[in-house]
Amino acid sequence: MTSIPSSRDGTPIFFTDSGSGTPEIVFVPGLTGDRSDFAAQIAHFQRSNRVIALDLPGSGESGSHRIDWSMAAFGADVATVVDHLELNDVVLVGHSFGGDAVAEAALLLSGRVKALVMVSSYRSLGSPRDDVKIAEWLAPLQEDFRSEMNDLTRRNFGPGADP
Length: 163
What we know:
This protein is of the alpha/beta class. Helices cover 35% and strands 17% of the residues. Strand 5 (90-95), helix 3 and strand 6 (113-119) form a beta-alpha-beta unit. Helix 2 crosses helix 3 and helix 4 crosses helix 5. The chain is globular.
């Protein structure tokens, strides 16, 4: 089943909802991924748990017309789906960029999140970047999100990678 609640800014969020049982597991993909990235995990866990996988705005079938592209907004998107489905015993699983989104969502879901699973999100949790470094990193994304994301994705693979 695929549904579409709207995030706080009205951006449609697509997700799948399958299986039953608790804890409910919510899968959140990385920045260039979508809910299909978790097909094998969904197939496994839906035998014993309710499993939700979503597309963050800008990816998959979710909307891409928004002004606020902050991590807080992505976290609110995840919380919107959890609230819409009235989930109360949740494990949030975030891959890469999705790890930050689930951490933000957990802050909004007061006590309903039983665990966070962050896959390939951090090598280490060192000192946070200062505002200048963050602004420098975000500037190209704000200028041309689509082109910068395509470039970022290409840089994550070696020169001999299959296109």
